[in-house]
Amino acid sequence: MIEKYYPDLYFDSIRHIDINILKEKGIKGIILDIDNTLVPMHTKDADENVINWVAELKKTGFKVCILSNASLKRVTRFNKEMSITAIHRAYKPAGKAFLNAADKMGLEPEKVAVVGDQIFTDIYGGNKVNMLTVLVKPIDKKEILYVRLKRHLEKRILRRFSNAHKSRLEIRNEWKKKRLQIERSRLN
Ligand SMILES: [Mg+2]
């Protein structure tokens, strides 16, 4: 089912994310991917834009948690100035990592939004635990071959997504709810 890869929302960059839409949807916490979502792949430190944007989210009342497949070293350095909750080596799209992040924020998965640049890790993983999934365009176009190959598939999914009928999105929403139960049962 291709629908399980569809994001709920799609924006050009984190700066374009409409915070009011998230609020209207009852979102209280936000999971953030680092690489190519907040900064380019090889940028070690969070820049001023990222730090200010995260501060803005917190000021608005959102809880924030970094969820990255990168190493402890990479995540710790990136998070040095912000010192927000962070999970490294998350093995996204593993549902466990996303549920762990929701737990750390003290929120039910339905109240959490996932912001990321990759459909097969961030979006699919968030959908599996019934979170609101927010896709952003990757910052850096120069990517390793493996990721570039995935981008081709992503483009095909996004084309289908942009033309998707409402009924297909409803089917997906039902799938998201059921899948959360499965992911939860796996934790026990
Ligand atoms: Mg990424």
TrEMBL record:
UniProt keyword Hydrolase present: yes
NCBIfam families: HAD-SF-IA-v1, HAD-SF-IIIA, YqeG_hyp_ppase
One GO biological process term: small molecule metabolic process
Highest taxon of source: Bacteria
Annotated organism of origin: Ruminiclostridium cellulolyticum (strain ATCC 35319 / DSM 5812 / JCM 6584 / H10) (Clostridium cellulolyticum)
Alphabetized CDD domains for the sequence: HAD_BsYqeG-like
SUPFAM superfamilies: HAD-like
Protein name: HAD superfamily (Subfamily IIIA) phosphatase, TIGR01668
Keywords: Hydrolase, Magnesium
Lineage per the UniProt record: Bacteria, Bacillati, Bacillota, Clostridia, Eubacteriales
Cofactor: Mg(2+)
Annotated GO MF terms: phosphatidylglycerophosphatase activity
